[in-house]
Amino acid sequence: MEPTVTITWDQTVQWLSDPVHAGIASGLVLVYVVGCCSIFARAGWSWALGLLMAVPGVNLAMFLLLSFGSWPARRELYRLRRLDHAVSKAERRYSRAA
Q1: How high is the pLDDT of residue 69?
Q2: Which residues does 29 contact at the CB level (< 8 Å), separation at least 6?
Q3: Alpha-carbon gap, residue 66 to 42, rounded angstroms
Q4: How far apart are CA 75 and CA 69, in angstroms?
Q5: Which residues are CB-neighbours of 59 under 8 A, at least 6 positions away?
Q6: In 10 A of CB 37, how many CB atoms?
Q7: Closest CA relative to residue 47, chosen from 70, 72, 79
Q8: b (16+ CB within 10 A) / e for 64-83
Q9: How far is Cα 29 from Cα 56, in angstroms, rounded to an integer?
Q10: Which residue ranges make up each domain of the chain?
Q11: Measured between alpha carbons, how far is 72 from 74 in angstroms, rounded to an integer?
Q12: Inter-CA distances, 58 with 25, 32, 61, 64, Å
């Protein structure tokens, strides 16, 4: 049997007290949050919603919103496609009449 490794909170705090480890952890969190902000902005929501992905518990709700929610950008795309279809239909009708 392999021994179980247990890491305590004090060991984690001690590990993060080293400036190199804290810098690496901060950099990874920064990349994660900036990426989440970018995803929310591209989906059509405010980029600031990506900041909520750093809050434990809330990030699960935001993930579910991204996964299963209706994206504002998608609704806008649907409206634009309908408008484009109506314009092209009117152009065809006008070209036949001329």
Answers
A1: 86
A2: 54
A3: 11
A4: 11
A5: 52, 53
A6: 18
A7: 72
A8: ebbeeeeeeeeeeeeeeeee
A9: 13
A10: 9-97
A11: 5
A12: 20, 15, 5, 10
Query: Where are the alpha helices (H) located in the chain, listed in sequence order?
Result: 9-16, 19-43, 58-68, 72-97
Per the confidence metrics, is the pTM higher than 0.70? no
The single-letter DSSP state of residue 5 is P
Identify the pLDDT of residue 17: 93
Residue pLDDT, tens place only, 9-36: 999 999 999 999 999 999 999 999 999 9
What pLDDT was estimated at residue 51?
94
* CA angle, residues 16, 23, 21, in degrees to nearest 5: 40
pLDDT digit of tens for each residue in the chain (98 aa)?
A: 788 889 899 999 999 999 999 999 999 999 999 999 999 999 889 999 999 999 999 999 999 988 998 888 888 889 999 999 999 999 888 887 66
